[in-house]
Design brief:
By secondary structure, this protein is an alpha/beta fold. The protein folds into two domains: 8-145, Response regulator (Rossmann fold, 3-Layer(aba) Sandwich); 161-275, Response regulator (Rossmann fold, 3-Layer(aba) Sandwich), CATH 3.40.50. The protein contains ten helices and eleven strands. The radius of gyration is 20 Å and the shape is elongated. The two termini are 23 Å apart. Residues 1-14 and 21-26 have low confidence and may be disordered.
Length: 277
């Protein structure tokens, strides 16, 4: 189920370990190298891929990407083009021989639109432009890197608790249903006052927080959280339609992550999973 899109521009031709997975002798984990300088995007991609069962290697620039490629031999590279120091284009040129020798395909993820004539000459198998169509992106990753090992069954003996603070009935219900199917114990409230009452009875593993709430808003909650060590220990993921500047303000007030509405439920699942371990 998806509520944001990232569109594909050129279709592909025919380290973090995966979440909750122990090493398996029967099938090697597929390794994906993510070369992206923006930490929020890199973390989102890493958590999304990890959630799907891939082992993720991260690099924040082209030079680190070259080093990771030499040392860890990934099955696939996800590459941004606008990188500091060494650009994505330079990375493609300098890594071409090694990638060809090891048969490592590259998926571009960039705000720059690809053209049909040049990506293949640089060894690029697929090109996605932002915002990302997550389902098509993951399908391309599986086609190019191979399917990851099967995920183990969820341990039903320990259901992480998620507290959803959201005043919109439809979104509250959607999150309750989706996260419940994911194996979480979900509690939903409409206001900060209700949330504080629930937290007093027992701390959740993660809080999903809308910012634009009646009476006390999400920014006020984050300010209060800064002065309360017990509250500050609970990860908070902001989900809001607030303008980008106000989302950044929430981040500066201590929010551990944020998603803009509309959002992709797969990305949400990956982020919640990373916080609710």
């Amino acid at each position: 189920m998806r509520t944001q899109d990232y569109s594909i521009e050129a279709a592909p031709p025919a380290l973090r370990e995966p979440s909750g997975q122990a090493p398996r002798a029967a099938k090697r984990a597929r390794h994906v190298l993510v070369v992206e300088d923006e930490s929020a995007i890199r973390t989102m991609l890493a958590e999304l891929l990890q959630h799907e069962g891939y082992a993720v290697i991260e690099a924040s620039d082209g030079r680190e990407g070259l080093r990771r490629l030499r040392e860890q031999r990934p099955d696939l590279i996800i590459l941004d083009l606008m990188l500091p120091g060494m650009s994505g284009w330079e990375f493609l040129n300098q890594s071409r021989e090694q990638r060809d020798r090891a048969n490592v395909p590259v998926v571009i993820l960039s705000a720059i639109e690809g053209r049909a004539d040049y990506p293949s000459t640089l060894g690029v198998a697929a090109w996605f432009t932002k915002p990302l169509d997550v389902s098509r992106f993951l399908s391309s990753v599986e086609q190019l890197a191979g399917a990851p090992p099967a995920q183990p069954p969820v341990d039903a003996s320990r259901r992480p608790r998620v507290l959803v603070i959201e005043d919109e009935y439809a979104i509250r219900g959607m999150l309750d249903e989706h996260l419940g199917h994911e194996g979480y114990a979900v509690e939903t409230v409409e206001t900060i006052a209700e949330a504080l009452e629930r937290i007093a009875y027992g701390s959740p593993d993660v809080i999903l927080l809308d910012l634009m709430l009646p009476r006390l808003d999400g920014w006020t909650f984050l300010r209060q959280r800064q002065d309360d060590p017990a509250l500050a220990a609970i990860p908070v993921l902001v989900i809001s339609a607030a303008p980008q500047q106000r989302l950044v303000e929430a981040k500066e007030l201590g929010a551990d992550g944020f998603l803009s509405k509309p959002f992709d439920l797969r990305v949400l699942s990956a982020l919640v999973r990373s916080f609710a371990r």
